[in-house]
Design a protein that fits this description.
24% strand, 13 helices, Rossmann fold, 18 strands, 452 residues, five-stranded parallel β-sheet, single chain, alpha/beta
Length: 452
């Protein structure tokens, strides 16, 4: 037996707020399990509990029930060399001590005293299996979300843990590689004679890929999107390139200093009220293009204009006042003590969220600290902050990430409202639900080359 969790329950804080109760999970040797539950149901907390990491994640807590890994009782706060974890938010899992992807992969091995020759071999083989060999010398801070997610999966696998908990590892990975990640996890569990439990959205994985299904809380509403995309053919709705006179991009090229060219001859235009997807595999330059459109980066070559006015004649402040950008890492938007203060600060700067706050369900969260919100709630708050005011266009980078059925409906309503008010909406998303929600949206394709 790999994992035997029986009737687990957890409460947090002095008020003993119940997070989950009566959750059980059994995994045998070489088995993988799927952990399901709505946003905020306690999937992350359950994973931390069975790995013995609650003291690192929570303050005051009370845990009841019993958990055994490989026949040993799990002790909270212990450090089990047989256990590995991939966190829900990939941006919080970087060591902060290494500059390159190679350094991040080597760091866990360094901590275990692995020799340099053996370390180099393991790093190379693991990177090859995740399709990130070409990223080994890249600085981790320049990676796209999908590239970073692959790198962190590699970091978790590099020490070959016998039990692995993966918290939403597929949300930023392109559809073509999701099936490969599932295969790698299953192969790893079999090779180490261990097991793995993955918390993931049901529309990203076919449940028949797992030996065990564990649910926390009421069953998720899945009638909005079935069947899971990995169980379907790879056919996609044919989409046309957008065309309009609001935002025009002509022959844009971009390369980071000392790096290869990421964007080559990108051209498109989009009009008021239009919705379009910026598409492409991990590493194609989607987020880089978004940063250029938001005025954060300047193109190496090419021209961008907003209602006929060239970007080069505008300050970054002017561009930001007209083009909003909801970052992939929603935490970078947050700086105040409550959601209400975040919205008030945006309004003071001239970007009031207006009815977006109600549409996105933020009216129920006004007194909450932004960093205590569930990841899905943070993402919706970032959308409200980026799209508020009288902006002409907004770019939403993975806005559907972490959203359950209710959160997803709120997001779709918000996007429809923004377009209905004449705002151009550019979407970067690997979530198939979002593409299906807007079948008439245009597409700006950045190519189909693989990450490596």
């Amino acid at each position: 037996m790999v994992l035997n969790a029986s009737h687990l329950g957890l409460s947090l804080g002095a008020e003993k707020r119940t997070i989950f109760r009566e959750v059980s999970c059994v995994l045998g040797e070489s088995e993988t399990g799927l952990l399901l539950g709505r946003s905020g149901s306690g999937k992350t907390a359950f994973g931390m509990a069975i790995c013995g990491l609650l003291p690192l994640w929570a303050g005051r807590f009370e845990l009841w029930g019993a958990t055994e890994l490989f026949g040993r009782a799990v002790e909270q706060g212990g450090c089990d060399r047989d256990t590995g974890i991939i966190l829900e938010n990939p941006y919080t899992q970087l060591s902060g001590l290494k500059n390159t992807v190679r350094g991040e992969l080597a760091f866990p091995l360094e901590c275990r005293g692995v020799g340099r020759t053996e370390m180099r071999r393991i790093v190379e083989e693991t990177a090859e299996s995740l399709g990130i060999h070409s990223l080994l010398e890249r600085r981790v801070r320049t990676l796209s979300g999908g590239e970073l997610q692959r790198a962190l999966i590699a970091c978790a696998l590099v020490t070959r843990p016998r039990f692995l908990f993966l918290d939403r590892p597929l949300t930023e990975i392109d559809n073509a590689f999701r099936r490969e990640v599932l295969r790698l996890v299953r192969t790893h569990a079999r090779e180490v004679r261990g097991g793995a439990l993955m918390a993931e959205d049901p529309w990203l994985v076919p449940e028949e890929s797992f030996e065990a299904i564990v649910r926390i809380g009421p069953e998720e509403e899945t009638d909005e999107y079935t069947p899971p995309p990995l169980a379907r053919s790879d056919s996609r709705t044919e989409r046309k390139a957008p065309s309009g006179d609001l935002l025009r991009v002509e022959n844009v090229r971009f390369a980071y200093p000392g790096g290869n060219e990421i964007l080559r001859e990108v051209s498109f235009s989009i009009g008021r009220g239009d919705i379009a997807f910026i598409s492409g595999p991990n590493g194609a330059g989607k987020t880089t293009l978004a940063r250029i459109l938001a005025g954060i980066l300047s193109p190496s070559r090419g021209e961008i204009s907003l209602e006929g006015r060239p970007y080069r004649s505008m300050t970054r402040r002017e561009i930001a006042s007209r083009v909003g950008f909801a970052l992939q890492n929603a935490g970078l938007h947050l700086s105040r003590s409550t959601v209400s203060e975040e919205l008030a600060l945006a309004a003071a700067w001239g970007f009031p969220a207006g009815n977006l706050a109600d549409i996105l369900g933020l009216d129920r969260l006004l007194g909450a600290h932004p960093l205590e919100l569930a990841q899905a709630e943070r993402k919706r708050l970032a959308v409200a902050l980026a799209a508020g005011g009288s902006r002409d266009a907004v770019i939403l980078d993975e806005p559907a990430q972490y959203q359950d059925a209710e959160g997803f409906r709120m997001l779709v309503d918000a996007i429809s409202s923004l377009a209905g008010k004449g705002m151009a909406v550019l979407l970067i998303s690997h979530d198939p639900r979002l593409r299906d929600a807007f079948p008439e949206a245009g597409e700006i394709s950045l190519g189909d080359k693989p990450i490596s």
